Automatic annotation (TrEMBL):
This is D-2-hydroxyacid dehydrogenase. The keyword Amino-acid biosynthesis does not apply. Residues 1-29 are annotated as: Disordered. Residues 1-25 have a biased composition (Pro residues). InterPro entries: FAD-bd_oxidored_4_C, FAD-bd_PCMH, FAD-bd_PCMH-like_sf, FAD-bd_PCMH_sub1, FAD-bd_PCMH_sub2, FAD-linked_Oxase-like_C, FAD-oxidored/transferase_4, Oxid_FAD_bind_N. It comes from Methylobacterium oxalidis. Belongs to the FAD-binding oxidoreductase/transferase type 4 family.
Amino acid sequence: MSAPVMPEPASPVPDLPSPTLPSPARPGTEAGAALLARLRERLSPRHVLTEDGDVAPHLAEARGLYRGRALAVLRPADTAEVAFAVGACAEAGVPVVAQGGNTGLVGGGVPHGGVVLSLARLSRIRAVDPVGATLTVEAGAVLADVQAAAEAAGLLFPLSLAAEGSCRIGGNLATNAGGTAVLAYGNARDLVLGLEVVLADGRVWNGLKALRKNNAGYDLKHLFVGSEGTLGIITAAVLKLFPRPASRAVGFVGLASPRAALDLFERLRRAAGQGLTAFEVMPRFGLEIVLAHVPGTQRPLAGRHDTYALVEFASPRPGADMAAELESALGEALEAGLAEDATIGASEAQNAALWRLRETLPEAQSREGGSIKHDVSVPLARLPEFLERAAAACRAEMPGLRPCPFGHFGDGNIHFNLSQPPGMDKAAFLASWARFNRIVHDVVHELDGSIAAEHGVGLIKRDELQHYGDPVGLDLMRRLKAALDPHDILNPGKVVALSADPPSALP
């Protein structure tokens, strides 16, 4: 097993079209002017943005899939100003769409009327408790800054994803973000102890308790985590922290099939237990396009394999030698025929090089033309079946199509992306999005999976949720929305729609 060379980091490149949402309803000129005047008086004119150049960056989602309109962008400085702004908009009947870093991938932060409420100025670290292993932060804190604050206290905040340098913790919680550490630490939902939330009428719920145990009634925070700003606006959170790893090791493994990947995962989990902190999978096509399009990357293994797994062992134990443990476990897998080849990083630079092969795959895929994307999850034991069935069905529908399924294999979450056939018109390919939604999501549904794994529902999957969701569950969601936001002020038309004529959810 040989060590790879570390290349330089790169940024993802979007590859999606930019259609627009239907024209939003706007308040009358007189009513809108009165609302803006009231907001300027409290927030100051410089934080009520109405010029096109100031508003434009807040109108499109990260991939450019949707573009909306807004009366203004509000930039409150604290929770009290958020509460005032939401209350004023509620009285005027004007919708409010909360935004953090606007890095979402399902159109959930795109406004189609009303105002955008940016939480960027609510960026303070309110408290660090090394003994209780908690961090209290405001919703506008950038995820990387939250990680740094935990590190400064000698601890770890494990949520990690590609946009961590620009996404904000409020949005991470509102969308129940996943990322690369879910296998060991859970989703964003599992990393929060308490919340502060502004409700649709402008009241503030103070649930900022740093308690590991609290059975005093309903656990209200979980209503708002993952609600995508449709039930309330998160303004602060108490987050769980963990011991920092003292030792870690990263390996890259060549495998004969997704079934072999599952067998390897089971073996490594038995060997390392909680020490198995990542198990990411990508196909041969995925690695080949990374090597072709991302400068500085190098082939980590001599041969070519059907499936590749990036695995990580880590431990907070002083003196732990995770490289030796990973080498032993992979050596046994090679001897047993579960793996075809493997390499282990010999330094942090080489570990980063291996991770970069996985993390730059979305960028590389964008260079291959149009990409139809699905963020899905199925029970772990059924992942190989899903990958085989979904790929076969998509290829049968469109000869020359190139499936590129990759992602968080260890927790059952796959980004089942489809690259266009070489030479096909990109727009024509992307026009097939709904067709392939039905093919892929039908397989997911038959295997008791979820059509929205870590990116959320937003706008793009709202109608798919209506198609596949449990009727009783959907009714409960609508009842919750109606109870907490009876006038449909907060992010209307997303996740579940209460209005009779919501905007189209198809790209």
